[in-house]
Design a protein that fits this description.
Elements (H helix, E strand, L loop, with lengths): L3 H6 L13 H5 L6 H8 L7 H13 L3 H14 L4 H14 L2 H14 L4 H13 L3 H14 L4 H13 L3 H9 L8 H13 L9 H17 L3 H20 L20 E2 L2 E2 L2 H18 L3 H14 L6
Protein name: Tetratricopeptide repeat protein
Organism: Streptomyces anulatus
Pfam family, one: PknG_TPR
Length: 314
């Protein structure tokens, strides 16, 4: 299950009204941490709608939900018809778990601005948390097809595709994130995991294992940091080991049209058999141990490497 709170707070923030008396002041606080922002906002001689909305958001970011709810109630009493207040009602409701109210709020914003992508994205999140996967997929797909800048729509679409059993579609969606995007690496990592996670090792996994291995290698060349690279490698190699130990489902026999045993293949530099995969896992866990920041973590990773090490005579 995805993090509803984080996803909600990652929704686009409405632009500050340039006519607001504190617009210039707020422009200088864009990079401030939430607690610092609240302190700064309390120095404003005459709080305005925009400063109060920004404080409301900061309270949500700090998990001060009661304070945020009180601030929202006050704003609704004074500016009930302002679309920005309605938008933040939706965000607050999503964060606090009132998904029905969130959907109604974002639907009202969508009615007011039918051409905007942000309310469609928000409605996709609402549909997803409400279990309306078809509706969620429709919203996410529309946003992603219209504006590839909304990469969260691609991640959302992939989530609901996996939930609906459309694993290949989820992989395709994640791999459609362009290389120029700052989220490219995260999308490719997610695509690797979408291929293999929550799959039985008795399924015919060879094609997905091979594709995952190619992608992990490519990510290393693209600049994936060593820790995440080795962690991802252990996921792929671990799934491959389970698959091999279960009989390598889907691999044709010697007489088949695509004859050849898994032993003849390699995955992330490891031979695709029990011994080779154990060596591969041992190597990755030892590398993670060398990269570990804490002593206890290092010891645990070395012990894990030792558990995977194949038995030898020497």
């Amino acid at each position: 299950m995805f993090d509803t709170r984080a996803t909600s707070l990652a929704l686009p923030v409405p632009r500050v009204d340039a006519m607001d008396p504190n617009a210039g002041f707020l422009a200088g606080l864009m990079a401030s941490a939430p607690a610092e922002l609240i302190t700064a906002l309390h120095t404003v001689p005459a709080p305005s709608l925009e400063t109060r909305l920004r404080e409301l958001r900061a309270r949500l970011e700090l998990r001060e939900l009661d304070s945020a709810a009180r601030a929202l109630t006050t704003l609704e009493g004074e500016h009930a018809d302002d679309w920005r207040v309605v938008w933040y009602r939706g965000v607050t409701s999503l964060v606090t778990g009132d998904h029905e109210t969130a959907a109604l709020s974002f639907d009202a914003v969508y009615d007011a601005f039918p051409g905007e992508m942000a309310p469609k994205l928000a409605l996709g999140i609402c549909a997803e948390v409400l279990g309306q996967l078809d509706n969620a997929a429709e919203y996410y797909r529309l946003v992603w097809a219209t504006d590839p800048g909304f990469v969260s729509a691609a991640f959302g679409l992939a989530r609901v595709q996996i939930a609906a059993g459309e694993r290949a579609g989820a992989v395709s969606t994640l791999e459609s994130v362009p290389e120029a995007s700052i989220h490219y690496t995260a999308a490719r990592v997610a695509a690797v995991r979408a291929r293999l996670r929550e799959r039985s090792h008795r399924e015919p996994l060879l094609a997905d294992l091979t594709a995952a291995g190619v992608q992990v290698t490519a990510l290393a060349a693209f600049g994936l940091d060593p820790v995440r690279h080795e962690q991802l490698s252990t996921e792929v190699l671990g799934k491959a080991l389970d698959w091999v130990l279960s009989g390598s489902a889907g691999v044709p026999g010697p007489a088949g049209p695509a004859a050849g045993s898994p032993d003849a293949r390699k995955l992330l530099g490891a031979e695709l058999n029990e011994r080779g995969l154990r060596f591969g896992l041992e190597r990755s866990y030892r590398m993670l141990a060398r990269l570990a920041q804490r002593g206890d973590e290092r010891i645990e990773l070395v012990e894990r490497a030792n558990r995977f090490r194949p038995r030898t005579w020497v």
